[in-house]
Write a structure and sequence with these properties.
Helix content: over 70%
Shape: elongated
CATH superfamily of one domain: Homeodomain-like
Order of helices and strands: HHHHH
Structural class: mainly alpha
Pfam families: HALZ (PF02183), Homeodomain (PF00046)
Number of helices: 5
Family: Belongs to the HD-ZIP homeobox family. Class I subfamily.
CATH architecture of one domain: Orthogonal Bundle
Distance between the termini: 98 Å
Number of strands: 0
Strand content: under 5%
Keywords: DNA-binding, Homeobox, Nucleus, Transcription, Transcription regulation
Main location: nucleus
InterPro entries: HD, HDZip_class_I_plant, Homeobox_CS, Homeodomain-like_sf, Leu_zip_homeo
Largest sheet: none
Length: 144
Amino acid sequence: MGDTSPTPSTGKIESSLHGMEAKRHHRNNTMKSEKRQQHRFSDEQIRSLEIMFKTESRPELPLKHRLANQLGLQPRQVAIWFQNKRARSKSRQIEGDYQLLKINYDSLASKFESLKKENQLLLSQVAFIPSTLPISMYKGKFDL
């Protein structure tokens, strides 16, 4: 009962787990060494891509291939550039919309506060009026 030596079946499992761990370690190290370097586009490539983006933000595959050939890029690079550009454009649009909404909200909130103060002032004036008028002027006209 005190024997802790692996049985044939547990030995296979441990061996299998060790092998899987070794493969995972190898795969992680390989992926690190195979990381692709980021490619910076030239100014001319960016200019061409920007011009194309203005006319076609979602180019079809043949257009991407033609553009990639003209610019000396891989079609996948062109596709990713367009995807990133669309995402950046959308973010800028959302930020602009947010700023406009915030300005409008702040303006409305300010107007609301002014109207609230004006309303309070008018209510206090209305409350003051009956005490300054002779009783005969409003007797029977208002239920106070």
